[in-house]
Amino acid sequence: MASEEELFASVDALLNEGPQLPPPAERARLREAAGITQARLATALKTTTQSVKNWENGRSEPKPPRLDAYQRLLNGWAAKHPAAGAGSATAPVPRAASSEPATSKAETAVAPQASAVPAAGPTRPAIRPAVPSRRPAVRKAAQPAVDPRFPHGPLAVLDGDGSAYGTDGIVLDCPATTVPELVEWALRESGLGAAKLNRYGKDSDPLIVLTAAAAVKLGLPERLEGHEQRRSLRLPEDHPVVKEVAKAKWQLTQRGFGPWARVYRKAQGRERQCVQLAVLSWDALDERSWPGVAEMGSADIARVLGVYASRVITPRGSTAVSGLELMTALRPPTKAVQDPETGNWVSGHNTGSLGTEPMDPAPPEATPEHPVVVNSGWTRGFLNEEAYQWVRPVDMLSDEECTLPFAVGLDLNTAFLAAAARLVVGLSAPDHFRAPQFNPKIPGSWLADLSPIELDPCLPSPFSPDGTRPTGPAWYQTHTLAYAQELGHDVHPIEAYLRRETGAYLDPWHDRLKNAYVDTLADLGVAKGLSDAEFLAAMEHHKEKDAALAAVLSAIKATVKGGVGKLRERPQGKSYREGETWPALSRPTWRPDIRAAVISKARVNMHRKLNNMVKMTGLYPLAVLSDCVVYPSPGESPLDFLPYAASGKPQPGGFRLGPTPGLAKLEGVQSMLWAVDLMEKGLNPARHIKGGDAVLDEGE
Questions:
Q1: How far is residue 444 CA from its own chain's centroid?
Q2: In terms of pLDDT, which residue wins out, 656 or 67?
Q3: If pLDDT is split at 50, 70 and 90, which confidence band does 351 have?
Q4: Residue 233: its pLDDT value, please?
Q5: Residue 425: helix, strand or coil by DSSP?
Q6: Which residues on adjacent β-strands are paired with residue 412?
Q7: DSSP of 431-452, one letter per residue?
Q8: What local confidence, expressed as pLDDT, does residue 218 receive?
Q9: 666: β partners
């Protein structure tokens, strides 16, 4: 005889069981009796017609929480449409425990959405609604109407149980157990993707982000280990998954199967066949660019990446890669043009773009290992347009400055993005000129001697990254020479490499990233129109308001810096030899001259503000690192030393506080003695205030 404990265990097991659905045939009967099509039911339950078919023929079963909703709907139909001959004695369909009676409310939920999906349509995966969130509402980026080809958004985060978490809280059922099956599902059933950002561009490929459990389920190692740098790690060509991909007639790009893998087949007509994969446990989401995201739950990761995708672009690699891809997406290299002879539409150059072919730089614009330099034997110097890394010598500090109690750091919001606004760059190959007349409207590289120019020694020189005075002729980008002219000095170039075709190539890139940055800050409570005191208070706690949106903001900033840096990506790997080409050189976007133009303008903008601050307040900076400047201050707030008019409004020309690119925010406060101590040791206080995250790198 069973013991009491065994009986209670059995009862508890029954209580813990989920709702039991009627047999598949009965599910179909109830739906047909209610006069509801499979497509309408799929719409109500946020799933696909194919999933409903699978439930009704016994191939698959729904999962919670969709299971509960489906159960409730069947209960309502069973009460209204009992089986023939059963009458009122028919046993009710089992349902999940609920405090509400099983009424026809579920059926009512179908009606408002019935017209959203036609009776017959493409196969779509099952969708489960996400648990309601109490997070702050996220402002949607301005977008055209949802493309019916991509009803489920641009991406999904796949878990080991087959749940694919998408944007807007949807959860898809993914039955794939191999990478080829996953690619087929993503292209044929998932409804994932994003519409092109430019009429001449291409749609964004679906992005599937794999958790560690999903990666293992698909036959991938949980971690990708090796002696190489993380970004260089790849699966070996003889790995079973790589062989599996090849056997299914899919291909991998030259980057191989790494943290960001692109699986594709040759396009059929105008239809691309490509899926982007990202493996979380292989460090696809770099902690520096996506702080804390890799440790979030799948739904939150999907939310972070979804907001980024809607405001910037569907991630296609590191933020640096995405920044570069965004340039091309907004300025596609080609467009359809009509052949005047045949009348046929063919691919032609898109005016204002960088075209389809890579372009050799002028020798002074290249890097020392570039084939143009090595093969020509160039030895006459290079552009040195880099961000500021300057510290004022301690012996140039005044007694009054040393008695001030605080050192306050000001950081310019996305300074390099601000510099890209209305920036005219070269679009054609460089031409060489001897003793040209300087023209500030022509982008290029100029050899000139700026060493005779006398400037305030308590400010960094605007002509060099380390702030020291030039000692002789050197190569400068147009903006640097134009600023020398603005300061009242004659400029007489010795020679130059200039470009005849020009344009504001980065304008749409600037506009999209600026809107993304401003909108995300606003969602974090830092909106336009705040007073300076309110702005500083909002900035102090904005990261605490929503960790997901704070991560998006960090990724946007990394996209700017990484995208600009990647315009001059240098060779990687110990096996590289000078004079050889490297993969980045095959891109039309390998343009060190454009990178130099952005940095030159940003550095000039910084010096202009520093100079104006001296004129308005008499204050000199202690140090400058990239987009961060440190000032001595009588108080802990920049309000204690920034220039304000009698009306209380900020004086134009100097540093102003605000949430838009180019305006400043408080970056850190330390004691003045601490700053002087660092300066005596030859260290830059701005680097320590900013935690070292200020130097513009060249991306990944």
A1: 30
A2: 656
A3: very high
A4: 83
A5: strand
A6: 664
A7: EEEESPPP-TTS-EEEEEE-TT
A8: 97
A9: 410
**Alpha-carbon distance values, 207 to 263, 515, 674 (Å):** 11, 23, 47
3-state SS assignment for residue 412 = strand
SS3 content of the chain, % helix, strand, coil (to 5): 35, 15, 45
What pLDDT is attached to residue 86?
Answer: 52
Q: How far apart are the first and last CA of the chain?
A: 69
How far is it, in rounded angstroms, from Cα 669 to Cα 692?
15
Pairing status of strand 271-279 against strand 207-210: parallel
Q: Where are the beta strands (DSSP E) in 191-333?
A: 207-210, 251-252, 260-268, 271-279
3-state SS assignment for residue 463: coil
Contacts of 686 (CB under 8 A, 6+ apart): 409, 623, 624, 625, 626, 628, 629, 630, 694
Cα-only R_g, the chain:
30
> Could you identify the residue written with the tokens 């060190």?
592
Closest CA to 631 of 696, 678, 690, 685: 685
Tokens 């899919």 -> residue: 250
Is 54 within 8 Å of 33 (Cβ atoms)?
Answer: no
| Greatest extent of the chain over all pairs of C-alpha atoms, in Å | 107
Q: Which two tokens stand for residue 655?
A: 């540093």
pLDDT tens digits along 169-217 = 899 999 999 999 999 999 999 999 999 999 999 999 999 999 999 999 9
The residue to which tokens 């641009």 are assigned: 154
Is the link from the previous residue into 129 a cis peptide, with omega within 30 of 0?
no
Per-residue confidence at 229, pLDDT binned at 50, 70, 90? very low
pLDDT per residue as tens digits for the range 246-265: 999 999 998 899 999 999 99
Record the tokens describing residue 460, joined without a space: 């960094």
Provide the pLDDT for residue 82: 87
H helices of 524-634, in order, are: 532-545, 547-565, 592-617
Quote the pTM value. Answer: 0.81
Strands (E), 318-401: 334-338, 345-349, 389-391
Q: What is the pLDDT of residues 525-546, one digit of tens each?
A: 999 999 999 999 999 999 999 9
